[in-house]
Fold these 2 entries.
Entry 1:
Amino acid sequence: MSEEPTVEAASDFAGVPDAFGRLWVPHRMAYIGENKTVDKSGPRCPFCTAPGKQDADGLIVHRGALAFVVMNLYPYSPGHLLVCPYRHVAAYTDLTGDEIAEIGALTQQSLDVLHRVSDPGGFNLGVNLGAVAGAGIEAHLHQHIVPRWRGDMNFLPVVGQTRALPQLLEDGRQLLQAAWDE
């Protein structure tokens, strides 16, 4: 007598890494599910409101003519910076040539400052365009500059659902801002 094959529920495998090395992190849905899209006027957009605040309150490291550099409120690593145009635009193709040039120059200067302040072993640079591409705030374009060190990611995000950051945002902002014009 043969047994009927059983179908295991998908929930039996939730949280188990698969052959592709996926790690299921359902606790991130609370962050992903937040309504971070804003209308074209951008009244609630954090990248539109930050320039109107004092540098420390807006986490601003440097202000340019067309764009600014700000600490990421939810950093992947210490010194995680964002370069944002002042203008509320979502698409890279909507930037002017001058905005593209200044964002590029501020990115170069950010890399130089981060090298001098914290000597990372490398960087991740990126612009996530659209929610499906990973943009947490898709209505206002911003470039990520993420400093990386060998061994900077450990077991805590996997086991403890916790990211250990050894530096407070304001401490990092002050160091970077002080080094900006050196």
Entry 2:
Amino acid sequence: MSENATTGDTYEQFTDHVRRMTNVGNAAGLLNWDQQVMMPEGGTPARSQQTAALSAVHHEMLTDDALSDYLDDLEAAELDAEQAATVREIRREHERATRVPGDLVEEISETTSNALPVWEQAKGEDDFDAFAPTLEEILNLKREYADHIDPDRDPYEVLFEEYEPYLDIDTAERILERLRDELVPLIDAIAESDRTLADPFDGTYDEDTQRALVREALDELGYDWDRGRLDTAPHPFSMGTQFDARVTTRFAPEDPLDALGSTIHEFGHATYTLGLPQDHYGTPLGESRDLTVHESQSRLWENHVGRSRPFWDFLAPRVNDHLGVDADPATLHEAANQVDPANLIRVEADELTYHMHIILRFEIERDLVRGDLDVAEVPAVWNDKMEEYLGVRPDTDAEGCLQDIHWTNGAFGYFPTYSLGSVLAAQVFAAAEADLGSLDEDIHAGEFGTLHDWLTENVHSHGCRYETDALIREATGEDLTADYFLDYATGKFGDLYDL
């Protein structure tokens, strides 16, 4: 048998193993979706064991000696670019996973699953002390996890790489610090401005009415209902594969734009997932490229499309019809872009102050993981940073440090990708318009296919073929930069608030 045939056989066996492993992970994802959307409240004890078992199986497959042998055999093989990318991605995951004991992986999975109802009760009762021991336990487990991977490196950097392996922590910190330094003065100027933006919404809007509006918005944007569904969850999210990418939202009776914005955001995630190559399902070539890129897609659709004036020219009649208001596009555009530094809740924050919420969480979790901050100090430090960055102080921990689910899931290192994604969204949208010309007329007419096709060709279709920095250069011609986002934010909000 020729060497090429042997390599081909090995690569086929390798990818068979990878696909089976990926399907185990995808099944665990569906169980997580069910727990947040449909599972009865009493199902947690069994669900914790189920997710822990799948996590253990996935870890065993990822650390299997057979997979190690395949990777060794393929190390010196002549592979094409796609095969080499697949091997690169699995090797990175395999090498990290083999350093972590399987029982620790299972313990983390079970602990975080059990933490969900503890966090929910603590948040409901505004009792951080009730959640603190659980948070401390999760922190210790994640520090141990990072120590197994590389005991000589900053543990936060190691955990950050779980979500963004190819953008280094120095790049992330540099961009976040620049956002903090340049956005705080802009937010202060807006707070001091005499300009008040319009808000045509008065009273309450029932869930069925809002659901009809957001479903029509998804229709118009081009959501594929044959491969998706819309549900509600306490914390909106999207999950799935290129064959089944689901979105969730939540409804605030007094703020119908909250559900609309979060639904468009999750649509952005889902349309990226649905745009991944179907023929590469189960391998890295059919997987999304980490969280900065994923968040860029949701932020692009939510902000650069969904909060643009042309979008409200298009959507205004539908909003008026569903919600029973009589507002012109300019009024609705202002309502969708109000800046409110006093808003304490991240997922309800406006496009601009949102980044202060992210930077605050990033700084706190980084210090927690590094051991520079005690869990007991979190509420006070959180409140101090809110006051420093946004001039407002939470009255309760439920509207402060208990509001997010991420630490409950052990997702330390996740938060920075939200702002990094927003930065990339502006850069990608600028690149799309550089190729296609201004998209204002298309958006005004409700024609979103041109933008969608460009994103699929330049971002979605690549899966994990490129590392993050290479994908950004492939799509935009430049390295990641905050220039486009800061120019966009300064121009947009300067115009809105007559600065």
